[in-house]
Amino acid sequence: MRAASLLEGMTLVLLVGIAVPLKHLADFPVAVRIMGPVHGLAFTLYVWMLVQTLASGRWTRAEAVRMLAVAFIPFGAFANERLLARRQRALASSV
């Protein structure tokens, strides 16, 4: 889940921070045509991993909403990754 979050977050930042400005400021729409589908695939993977994670039943509704919401915020995935790492450590120590 952590890797999927980081991948989705990086592709979102690249899309919004580089590809879209290149399209509008430098008249270079190819950047969006390339990064758009890459981000779409990463987002789909992230949502699929989120559904799989939530199916385990050990996550609250608030955690699920937070993990979905950060997928729409540039750089949100990086904060999410820290929270997921903390959760992973807590689960590992309780086993």
TrEMBL record:
State the GO CC annotations: plasma membrane
Q: Which residues form the DUF3817 domain?
A: 2-85
State the membrane topology. Answer: Multi-pass membrane protein
Q: Which of UniProt's keywords are assigned here? A: Cell membrane, Membrane, Transmembrane, Transmembrane helix
Q: Where in the cell is it found?
A: Cell membrane
- Is Cell cycle set as a keyword in this record? no
Pfam families cross-referenced by the UniProt entry: DUF3817
Under the heading PANTHER family, the entry gives: MEMBRANE PROTEIN, MEMBRANE PROTEIN-RELATED
Q: What is this protein called?
A: DUF3817 domain-containing protein
Origin species, per record, is Gluconacetobacter asukensis
